[in-house]
Write a structure and sequence with these properties.
binds zinc ion; Purple Acid Phosphatase, chain A, domain 2; about 30% helix; alpha/beta; six-stranded mixed sheet
Length: about 240
């Protein structure tokens, strides 16, 4: 089985189109979307239509639920809050229902997916440190956990004795007896200093996991954000990947 994983698209149609073209060439058997299809970018409905067309296993992100009034936005920064309210006005009734009905986690044979962390997924905590990772591993019964949310790709390993470390690089072959948290990065708003769109592949026969990057038309995505009247910093940050 070959899985194609995407997360944190955030209404960036230009990035999503390029990522999906890459995944088509990979011959994906099952698509998985780790949430935040909307919020920040100018094309929330268009992105949702493309994602729905993949017939994915999909879970909720905080922006998805915020956009349908299902999560508190008082802790969002001002730009994020403005984008959520803008998105709420754009979404079709059908897409609002779709987002409202998303679940928080899904389990597979040897992996689980969650947008934020397995520690209380509905409160949208981040895994940014080794101690955050350890807390999530304590709830992880499968070998692998794929996450999004921070927009920063990273692979964290737990060696079976409770020792955790962030691994260098973005690909691995899964050895027995180790567990992993894989943050697959963001399609539509990367924040690791690399502005290219991120996505991931998981091939079960070869036990290979890989986070990949691809360039897209950042200028066009920026122009649309500005023309939509969304905060300008949401356009600017795309070219820095911050
Ligand atoms: Zn996000």
């Amino acid at each position: 089985m070959k899985y194609g994983l995407i997360a944190d698209i955030h209404g960036n149609l230009e990035a999503l189109q390029v990522v999906l073209a890459e995944l088509r060439d990979e011959g994906i058997d099952q698509y998985i979307c780790l949430g935040d299809v909307v919020g920040y970018g100018a094309d929330p409905n268009e992105c949702l239509e493309l994602v729905k067309g993949l017939e994915p296993v999909i879970i909720a992100g905080n922006h998805d639920w915020a956009s349908v009034g299902k999560t508190d936005i008082s802790y969002f920064n001002p730009s994020a809050r403005e984008a959520v309210l803008w998105t709420r006005n754009q979404l079709t009734k059908e897409n609002m229902d779709y987002l409202r009905n998303l679940r928080l986690t899904e389990e597979f044979k040897n992996f689980v997916v969650v947008h934020s962390t397995l520690v209380s997924p509905q409160t949208w905590g981040y895994i940014l440190t080794i101690s955050d990772a350890k807390a999530s591993f304590a709830h992880q019964t499968r070998q692998l956990c794929f996450i999004g949310h921070s927009h920063q790709p990273v692979i964290v390993m737990e060696d079976g004795d409770g020792n955790c470390e962030a691994l260098p690089g973005f690909s691995l072959e899964l050895p027995q007896g180790h567990r992993y948290i894989v943050n697959i990065g963001s399609v539509g708003q990367p924040r690791d200093g690399d502005p290219r769109a991120a996505f991931a592949l998981y091939d079960t026969p070869s036990k290979q996991v890989e986070v990949k990057r691809v360039e897209y038309d950042i200028k066009l995505a920026q122009d649309k954000i500005i023309r939509a009247g969304l905060p300008r910093n949401l356009a600017l940050r795309l070219e820095y990947g911050r």
